[in-house]
Every structure is written in C-alpha cells, then in structure tokens.
Amino acid sequence: xxxxxxxxxxxxxxxxxxxxxxxxxxxxxxxxxxxxxxxxxxxxxxxxxxxxxxxxxxxxxxxxxxxxxxxxxxxxxxxxxxxxxxxxxxxxxxxxxxxxxxxxxxxxxxxxxxxxxxxxxxxxxxxxxxxxx
Length: 133
Prior knowledge:
Elements: E1 7-15, H1 19-22, H2 25-38, E2 43-50, E3 56-62, E4 65-72, E5 77-85, H3 91-102, E6 106-114, E7 120-122, H4 128-131
Antiparallel strand pairs: 1-5, 1-6, 2-3, 3-4, 4-5, 6-7
Helix pairs in contact: 2-3
C-alpha cells in the first residue's frame, strides 16, 4: 500500500475570546477532543497543561497528526492549529468547531498545503456559522 504525503495545516490566531474559557485546560481539552470527532480524526492521546497564574496548552495527538491550542487569557488570545495528513480528515472542520465554541471577536487564519513539494499558503474561508456569536 502506498501512502500519500499530502496534508493540510490550518493555523488560526483568535482575539477577544472569554478569559474563563481560555484559562480552563480541562474545558479546552474536552472541546478539542470534540473537534477531532467533528472532523473525523482518530485521537491517540491528549496532553494538557494549566499554567499559573493563567494560560493553558492542550495537544491532541491524532493518528492523522495533531490539534493544538496555546492560550493567553489575559490578552483574550489563543493560537490554534490543526494538521492532518491525507484527504479523509478536514482540519478546517476542527478549527471551525473550536472557533464556534471560543467565540472570539477576531480571527486570522492561514492554511498550508503540505507534502506535495513547495508548501502553498491559502487564506481559508472560515465557516461563517462558526463566527456568529
């Protein structure tokens, strides 16, 4: 069996999200596992760290690659990314889900197409339903 090296990597900076959501590693972990399910990915493991006095990092290791979030609640900021190999799992669906639950005021996103030679950078169209407060 031959495997494709094709992958999509969506990275999003969000601003203006709720302090309480961004400062709750346990809640973020649950949302990220749900995001993996929404996009059809297979969760292998989950790691999270709650920082003091605030902030969290959560990493969901997927069979297809990963989903991560790093938060700075005092600034209302979260850096999200989802990278998936192959064509069966759509990382944009995971990111759209996370944006829909974080409800930030602003998002800035890029999508990298990887594994086909030189990386291509796109500006993905965010799911408008995910941006509705």
